[in-house]
Design goal:
The protein is mainly β. It has no helices and 16 strands.
């Protein structure tokens, strides 16, 4: 990562990989050079209907050793990949990090995850992750979210975040690609470390550290 991570924050890693010869590409749980322990938060297999078989997965880890780690994941049958990393504060460090999640897939320019189950707490982090089959397509956040990280390479991914609100309830993530694409849209609601006090900016969990790597 380009700067030092903060002890007690949570790193999230979204990995997208594809094989272009009808062989399923898969993603192993990442590791980093600081020894932070990652776990799988959500994943989905992707088939574009043209012999390209891929997987998109989201992992996260509590920052138990701060610093500037290099993050890596072992990919099987991968011919292209993109990795997106971001970091947030105020999230649970011990126990299950995810409250609820949902993943939507479809074709078009307006990806939508659909609704999660009802959250168990208010003011949680609602993290949205978008993936597209077509490169060079800018992404705009939707549904009250703030665009966090975006990539418009041949394997585009993007992340956005928002506060689940004082009433909690079912959540969703959405956005807009600039053209019609085959897409997947994640909505993952992360448990808090403690009582939440939303910031005046409406982006209470953002601490920086966005980075994207790719091999196409």
């Amino acid at each position: 990562m380009p700067g030092a991570t903060v002890l007690g924050d949570r790193i999230k890693v979204m990995v997208r990989t594809f094989n272009n010869h009808s062989i399923q590409a898969t993603i192993a749980v990442p590791t980093d050079t600081n020894g932070n322990a990652y776990q799988l938060d959500a994943t989905i297999n992707i088939d574009d209907g043209f012999g390209d078989l891929g997987q998109v997965a989201v992992f996260s880890a509590p920052v138990t050793t701060a610093g500037t780690p290099t993050i890596s994941a072992v990919l099987t049958n991968a011919e292209e990949w993109t990795i997106l990393v971001d970091e947030h504060s105020g999230l649970r460090q011990i126990g299950a990090p995810v409250d609820v999640f949902v993943i939507g897939t479809g074709t078009g320019s307006t990806p939508n995850s659909g609704n999660t189950a009802v959250t168990t707490a208010a003011n949680e982090l609602v993290w949205g992750g978008a993936e597209s089959s077509v490169g060079g397509q800018p992404f705009a956040a939707g549904g009250g979210s703030t665009l966090y990280v975006t990539d418009t390479s041949a394997g585009p991914v993007a992340s956005e975040d928002k506060d689940s609100g004082a009433s909690g309830g079912a959540q969703s993530s959405s956005g807009t690609w600039s053209a019609s694409v085959l897409w997947a849209m994640f909505c993952i609601v992360y448990n808090l470390a403690g009582a939440a006090v939303p910031s005046p900016s409406g982006n209470p969990w953002l601490t920086g550290q966005p980075i994207i790597g790719r091999q196409i």
